[in-house]
TrEMBL record:
This is Single-stranded DNA-binding protein. GO terms for molecular function: single-stranded DNA binding. GO terms for cellular component: nucleoid. It comes from the Bacteria. Coiled coil: none annotated. PANTHER family: SINGLE-STRANDED DNA-BINDING PROTEIN. It comes from Proteus mirabilis. One of its GO terms (biological process) is DNA replication. Pfam families: SSB (PF00436). Keywords: DNA-binding. The keyword DNA-binding applies.
Length: 73
């Protein structure tokens, strides 16, 4: 049975550019970040190390946004 509620994801990577923080007309804060995560492995056939980079667009709202902005900056 699927649980109802909030999903939590932990992404560890590198910022692609400086975070962009702005405020909505109602005063709520919004921060947009681009984050690169990577995975590396050894190719079984060639023995060569391979790497794959994936880019994530992350949008953070409200109080969480203000708290994370202090940590990232």
């Amino acid at each position: 049975m699927a649980s109802k509620g909030v999903n939590k994801v932990l992404l560890i990577g590198h910022l692609g550019q400086d975070p962009e923080m702005r405020y909505l007309p109602n005063g709520d804060a919004v921060t947009n970040i681009t984050l690169a995560t990577s995975d590396s492995w050894k190719d079984k056939q060639s023995g060569e190390t391979k790497e794959r980079v994936e880019w994530h667009r992350v949008v953070i709202f409200g109080k969480t946004c203000r708290n994370r902005w202090r940590i990232s900056a």
